[in-house]
Amino acid sequence: MNAGTRGFKYRTITILVFCCYVFWDFFGIDMTLTGGEERIPFHRIFIFLTLVLLLANFKIVAEVLTKSKLFLCLIFYALLSVAWSADPKATLMIFIFLLSSLLIAVITALAFYDRHNNFIAWLFTLTFLMVLASIFVALKYPKLGINSSDFAKVRWIGITNHPNKLGGLVLISIWCSVNLFFSEGGFLRKAISSVAIAAAMYAVVMADSMTSIVASFVVVVSMLYFRFLGRASASFKLVLFVVIGLGFMIITTFYMNSEEIVNKSLASGGRDTTFTGRSALWERGVQSFFDSPLIGHGFDNLDGLTQKYGIKMSHLHNGYIEVLAKGGGVAIVLLFLIILKNFRCLMFIKNVNPGLFAFLSTGFLGILVHNLAESSYLRGLNGLNLTFMLISSFLVVSVNRIDMIGKNR
Q1: What is the chain's mean pLDDT, rounded?
Q2: 3-class DSSP assignment, residue 85
Q3: What is the Cα–Cα distance from 6 to 21, expressed in whole angstroms?
Q4: Is residue 146 classed as helix, strand or coil in its secondary structure?
Q5: Using an 8 Å Cβ cutoff, are 9 and 56 in contact?
Q6: Structure pTM?
Q7: Residue 191, pLDDT above cutoff 60
Q8: CA nearest to 301, candidates 56, 87, 37, 60
Q9: How many alpha carbons lie under 13 Å from residue 291 in its C-beta half-sphere?
Q10: In sequence order, what are the beta bridge partners of 156?
Q11: DSSP, res 190
Q12: Is residue 147 helix, strand or coil?
């Protein structure tokens, strides 16, 4: 495979288009002001630019796509579900969004796979500015940046249109910030990264997006592990895990049982064992899978299931259950194969490019955790779904580049 950056065209335009995808998903002031009415179709511009970039770099993009068969199969399976979905038009739109997202992810990976720190700097700048703007809007214009009517408690939305959307923005911001902090650079870079992490954590706490808080914590902890414990001896890791395990056993034996720990932990975040009502959605989602276990109900907004169960099913707050409900066993198997392939590719590049490994693995783990209580997989123009596609594309390009270098030696 000759997918290198030497013959790549329009790198700067590529990153600008990619940032447009991210911005347009998380920016939501227009929807807040109009009450969720149809938006200005700005997305048509950057989808068109994606097509232009595809044509300009068609050969190398096609080579990468041949190595991304699982993702292509999953996306075209979503298109096939037009035949049985309750809203074929919505399904077709989601297919277009998914395909354009995969294309810009592949194109961006080709442009920056050997200069990922440059990519981090671009995405960090965008998300940091959006987080700062969210804090400013919430503090200066609370009627616009704070939602005090739709939830049990006051929650920030900033320049987005939902607290959990602000949480998703924070997750990407923290992912970029911690990787920028540990990349090569002086005191100023580390200081700015630290400020960005602090600002993002402040915003997500005020948004009360517990899933994003946990996922961001996973990103930070995994980065610290890779940087400081990843190369530690096996005996040291074993002793550390044994000490942690013994400590947990002592707490559960003499102070609190595991059920009390769970209840108190959830209560501290204003949650309960229903995960703020999510468990009812998960139950209906699993139930809908058994209604159509092989092919699911189609990749639309699941309005048919909403009418059937009398509960809004358009967002099941679990990416795995949502894929199960929409695409059945076929889709969930393809998704898990993609995840397993990503794990295998991460292990392949771990020793060859530790910096890229840390960047991709921290984001990958964060998204896996985030989808346990939120949904982003295969949701059209979704920033976290785009990030998942980007990480997968980075891995495909990097592994094939390493293979090519090895064969030429």
Answers
A1: 89
A2: coil
A3: 25
A4: strand
A5: yes
A6: 0.91
A7: yes
A8: 87
A9: 15
A10: 146
A11: H
A12: strand
Could you write out the DSSP letters of every residue in 262-294?
HHHHHHHTT--TTTTTHHHHHHHHHHHHHHSTT
3-state helix, strand, coil in the chain (%, to 5): 75, 0, 25
Residue 178, token pair as written in the block: 């911690």
Question: In the block, which residue shows the tokens 């003499």?
Answer: 254
Using alpha carbons only, give the angle 358, 214, 264 rounded to the nearest 5 degrees. 145
DSSP for 344-358 reads HHHHHHTTT-HHHHH
Q: With contact defined as beta carbons under 8 Å apart, do 50 and 17 qualify?
A: yes
- Give phi and psi for 65, each to the nearest 5: -65, -30
Shortest CA distance to 323 belongs to which of 345, 302, 344, 303? 302
Q: Residue 156: which H helix or E strand, with range?
A: strand 155-156
Domain-wise residue ranges, the chain: 11-408
CB atoms near residue 267 (< 10 Å): 11
> In this structure, are residues 351 and 302 in contact, taking their beta carbons and an 8 Å threshold?
no
Amino acid at 339: I
**Hunting for tokens 């092919």 — which residue is that?**
295
Residue type (1 letter), 104: I
Instruction: Please name the amino acid found at residue 6.
Output: R
- CA distance linking residue 183 with residue 123, whole number of Å: 14
**Joined tokens for residue 301:** 């907004």
Two tokens at 207? 């948004």
Share of the chain above pLDDT 70, in %: 87
Is the pLDDT at 206 greater than 80, yes or no?
Answer: yes
Q: Provide the β-strand partners of residue 146.
A: 156
Decide if 181 contacts 226 (C-beta within 8 A): no
In angstroms, rounded to a whole number, what is the distance separating the alpha carbons of residues 191 and 179? 13
d(CA 326, CA 301): 9
- Residues in the chain, total: 409
Q: How far apart are CA 90 and CA 102, in angstroms?
A: 18
Q: What is the pLDDT of residues 134-183, one digit of tens each?
A: 999 999 999 999 999 888 899 999 999 999 999 999 999 999 999 999 98
